[in-house]
Amino acid sequence: MLFMHAGTLQSCELKDLVITQKATGKTVENKAEWEASVSVDCPCTQANVKLFCKGFQTAEAVDSSLLSKSGDECLLNNGQPLYGSDAVSFVYAWDAPFDFKPVYSEVACS
């Protein structure tokens, strides 16, 4: 998607989804708890965000409205839009942070 910003043409793409993770310092069933946050590094909206999550495991239930697994993909935020300044965060517990990768989103620029 292309949009005008301050007179320059820019685009928003799947690669503009940024995933950061950090340890919370807590443990659940002897597994480290991690907080994952997905944000949009672009002024456009991205909806129906799906992450590659084959092999994802957690010792702690993840709120399914934030992350729901179906096959090798996880739907973020029930498919609801993520706006340029928003982030969706969820926690899970495992030995190491999982390497989530964005695989799909619907970009809308206004």
Automatic annotation (TrEMBL):
Keyword Signal among UniProt keywords: yes
Record bears the keyword Signal: yes
Keywords: Signal
Pfam families: TPD1_C
InterPro entries membership: TPD1
Top-level division of the source organism's lineage: Eukaryota
Protein name: Uncharacterized protein
